[in-house]
């Protein structure tokens, strides 16, 4: 079983610490068997959570040495993230990377990960409040404050608070496909995949909510993915001008109408690749890409692999 080690420093943010256990613990296979084992690793078998959010003392049976068994290491934020991390903690993280473990940070946990030097030359994010400070302290890191998470393959970082859920669901999607990730999200009453950056989603309600202004047009777009929709088509369906439509999408969704449409088409293609034997050419038609070449180009850019490789990896088997 895939072991997830959560490195909890004293003053850890309770929400960040709990997110990996909640997400990975909610992920099950076809027979409802757990796919991950999550271990909270601390100094001396106990850790105190951060004071401003209600201090708690959490006891655990795993220590720093147990990180050696982790396939994925998650670093949550902690209240002393601006202080120099202990040397043995930095060495433990570097050692995990050296043996091939996947390492992910949540929120201000990016500061500890950056202090190891592993993020140098890599793209990273953190809570938007602290992004400028992360860039100032670690100029070799390419800090992007506009995204919910970054994925460098072996090193991942998330933005603040709830973005840790997005990151962990992304890891489940990488490991087991979009169907398992979607089922995990449903159990958590969470959107499987949020588009746009952290600032937009912190400040605005989910546009998929039945009461949101864009819900009818989003539903219409989802049901018409096979059609060659233009901005004008979408604006007419929404009964607004193209300029107003674009402004509303940026305000409520955090991206443009056509970018949202592309993401929806890719998600539909992923589902069909996982759940059907339809040839790639037919899937391209169903999702409105027109040709296999167009689907392959967009799929590789968004997902990071080809439709054929994705199907071979995640196709549901009896």
Automatic annotation (TrEMBL):
Domain of life: Bacteria
Domain HTH araC/xylS-type, first and last residues per copy: 215-313
SMART domains per UniProt: HTH_ARAC (SM00342)
GO molecular function: DNA-binding transcription factor activity; sequence-specific DNA binding
Keyword Magnesium: no
Pfam family, one: HTH_18
Keywords, ordered alphabetically: DNA-binding, Transcription, Transcription regulation
Keyword Transcription: yes
Name of this chain's protein: AraC family transcriptional regulator
Phylogenetic placement of the source organism: Bacteria, Bacillati, Actinomycetota, Actinomycetes, Streptosporangiales
